[in-house]
Structure prediction request, 143 residues.
Amino acid sequence: MKKITFLLLLAIAFISCTADDKLKIDSSEIVGVWNWTSTDGGMAFNIHETPQSTGNEYQLILNSNYSYSLLENGNTISSGTFELSMRESQLFNRTSKFITFSGDIEEADNLVLNGMITRTDQETLTIANDFPDGIGSTFSKIE
Prediction:
């Protein structure tokens, strides 16, 4: 009886430990240095911003240890950590990957950083709002 009780307690302890551990989603597809190329969207698709139209260049650095830096015109304006999660998209009614930044995240005008991630190819990353008439920021990979 003692052996059965011990094995039962051991199984419960094992199950509860793995339930508490948060599984991290693989970040390898987004790790790198990304230059902001545009932000588009809004009501009636009325927002069209680029580095040329704003006079600001943004660079997003995503590291494999889930840390990030955001640079504006070569100066670091934010740094901290990011988290990837899978959840139901309100916009597409399917499970999609989302990115959320923590730390001293500094949202720049018309630059979307927290949102749904889409990839059209290996060199393009889009982070977008998950609602109709939202906006999305597109980045191109440089490293």
About this structure: The helical segments are 2-20, 51-54. The longest strand covers residues 75-88. Residues 6-11, 13-21 have pLDDT under 50 and may be disordered.
